[in-house]
Design goal:
Alpha-Beta Plaits; alpha/beta; N-utilizing Substance Protein B Homolog, Chain A; 20 helices; four-stranded antiparallel β-sheet; 466 residues; Rossmann fold; disordered N terminus
């Protein structure tokens, strides 16, 4: 006789499903991030969705993963004091185990030191050899007994002190101090080590923000109005808002990213281009601002992202976005002078989103800035040709660094005198409660004229210090 699925054999005990190990999940995520294979937020979402972790385990995994990455510089400073050889010479797996164990010892009061050491050793047994297991045990026990070593003195080495205590690369801290001063840099670093705000962009084609806010509050979530009319800041369990996303009523998007579409200011009936559309977060926002009336030409070189863009449009009920498999460098050739407004949301280092993706600070090195800037200039120059006379060109990057922002714009204005700067904005997390963004709006001169307003006449709207 055929048994139903799940029915046990006579006389055989049914084995209960094994409970997933949160420490193993922490190790897996940190190890892959350390190896440059994934971003923590993306991988964390996949791991938590795949395995049946309890709410308490999900909270622990999230806290330790993001906490370890945010405090990696401070943890490494402590670990190096207890390890006889350079920390970088250790296997990546052992570095990940040591950091996660030390983070729990120094930053999680609810985890006793002995427990943190024991569990780190158990993970090391599965992913190391007897020598590295002994090293993990010895290093963590020594730091449990001796405590955290003193950072460089603030009065003698302020950049070194801040780099350790707030866990940012020294080269980046030095640049920020030179540009904004010690106090502003300290505030920015401190905010980068806190969770970012969770913001929803309400799809006003389908519902007013007040209706979404009311539904969320009925579920016990805290909701406040954002700076943009369609923005809602939300605190509470993510699962309680996923149905609104699936219904096409909201999109998860930072307010800094929303500000980019507002700077472009697309109008119903216009022809707009998103020259580097990706999965369509800004293209769909433009369509919503246009009341789904007009034309949005969305370009990207990755077919998978264009497929995702089409799925977002279907979810949101948007039918004016056209997906084109085209490099933005060719936009001016393919669509010369056809666009009322063009957005170039350029690929960048991402140094403005350290708060959201803490590992970025450890992945980006100074030479990368010039490499990215060269690509950004090419993309902006290629897309500029698609702007009609008197049309608008907006450039944006989620970076705080001048090489990727003002320096790129100065170069473009010098090479293309038909464009003039109208507005320039720099958003910083500690000042604006958004991701870090640089954005600028340029205006093309009327037909027959070579120059618009001079740069010195441009309106500046920079809420953060230069």
């Amino acid at each position: 006789m055929r048994r139903d699925v799940g029915q046990s054999s006579p006389g055989r005990a049914v084995r209960a499903p094994s409970r997933p190990d949160p420490r193993e999940a922490i190790f897996t995520i940190l190890h892959r991030v350390e190896s440059g294979q994934a971003f923590a937020n993306v991988l964390l979402h996949r791991v938590l969705a795949r395995d049946p972790y309890s709410a308490a385990d999900q909270a622990l995994i999230t806290e330790v993963v993001f906490g370890t990455l945010r405090r990696q510089g401070r943890l490494d400073y402590g670990l190096q004091a207890a390890v006889a050889r350079p920390l970088a010479s250790l296997p990546a797996a052992i570095r990940a185990i040591l950091r996660a164990g030390l983070y729990q010892m120094w930053f999680l009061d609810r985890v006793p030191d002995a427990v943190a050491v024991h569990e780190a050793v158990e993970v090391a047994k599965r992913h190391g050899h007897p020598g590295t297991v002994k090293l993990v045990n010895a290093v963590l026990r020594r730091l449990a007994a001796e405590g955290e070593p003193a950072p460089p003195p603030a009065d003698i080495d302020p950049a070194g002190h801040l780099a350790v205590t707030e866990s940012h690369p020294r080269w980046l801290v030095e640049r920020w101090i030179a540009r904004w001063g010690l106090n502003e840099t300290r505030a920015l670093c401190a905010v980068n080590n806190t969770p970012p705000p969770s913001t929803l962009r309400v799809n006003t084609l389908r519902t007013p923000p007040e209706a979404v806010a009311a539904r969320l509050r009925e579920r016990g979530l805290t909701v406040t109005q954002g700076k943009a009319p369609e923005a809602l800041r939300v605190r509470g369990t993510l699962a309680l808002r996923l149905d609104l996303y699936n219904e096409g009523l909201v999109t998860m998007q930072d307010e800094g990213a929303m500000a980019v579409a507002h700077l472009l200011a697309p109008q119903p009936g216009e022809t707009i281009m998103d020259a580097t559309a990706g999965s369509g977060m800004k293209a769909t926002h433009m369509a919503e601002l246009m009341r789904n009336h007009g034309r949005v030409v969305a370009l990207d070189i990755q077919p998978a992202k264009l497929k995702s863009l089409s799925a977002h449009c279907a979810r949101l009920g948007i039918d004016i976005v056209e997906a084109h498999h085209l490099d933005a460098r060719q936009a001016g050739v393919r669509f010369r002078g056809q666009m009322d407004r063009v957005l170039v949301d350029a690929p960048c280092t991402g140094l403005g989103v350290i708060r959201r993706r803490p590992e970025i600070r450890w992945r980006v090195a100074l030479p990368v800035l010039e490499t990215m800037a060269a690509q950004q200039r090419e993309l902006l120059a290629g897309a500029a040709g698609a702007v009609r006379p008197e049309g608008v060109l907006v450039y944006a990057v989620c970076s705080t660094e001048p090489e990727e922002g003002p320096d790129v714009i100065r170069d473009v204005l010098r090479r293309y005198p038909a464009f003039a700067l109208e507005e320039e904005r720099l958003l910083l997390p500690h000042r604006d409660e958004t991701d870090g963004f640089y954005m600028v709006r340029l205006r093309r001169a009327p037909a027959g004229r070579r120059e618009g307003r001079r740069r010195g006449e441009a309106k500046t709207s920079e809420s953060s210090p230069r």
